[in-house]
Amino acid sequence: xxxxxxxxxxxxxxxxxxxxxxxxxxxxxxxxxxxxxxxxxxxxxxxxxxxxxxxxxxxxxxxxxxxxxxxxxxxxxxxxxxxxxxxxxxxxxxxxxxxxxx
Length: 102
Hints:
- This protein is α+β, with helices and mostly antiparallel strands.
- It has one helix and seven strands, in the order βββββαββ.
- Helices cover 18% and strands 31% of the residues.
- A five-stranded antiparallel β-sheet has the order 1-2-3-7-6. A two-stranded antiparallel sheet has the order 4-5.
- The protein starts with 5 loop residues before the first strand and ends in a 20-residue tail after the last strand.
């Protein structure tokens, strides 16, 4: 088995050195956190879904001519991307269901 060098591990992904200079392999994890990581769980299949959603979003951006880091999906949990400098910004969406009655 070919061992890859891990570069970083976060809440949702593990980053490995890619096969070519300037590339990275993103591995999408099944871990989930809430309340600033006070609650932690493993949701089977979350990484697979996140990989497909990410592929869809970045492929759509590419079709619109918007450059991004995505190269290709490698398998169910991994994608090959260009190495980029990260802007330290986190956006959290809180969705609220509402119903209006007449």
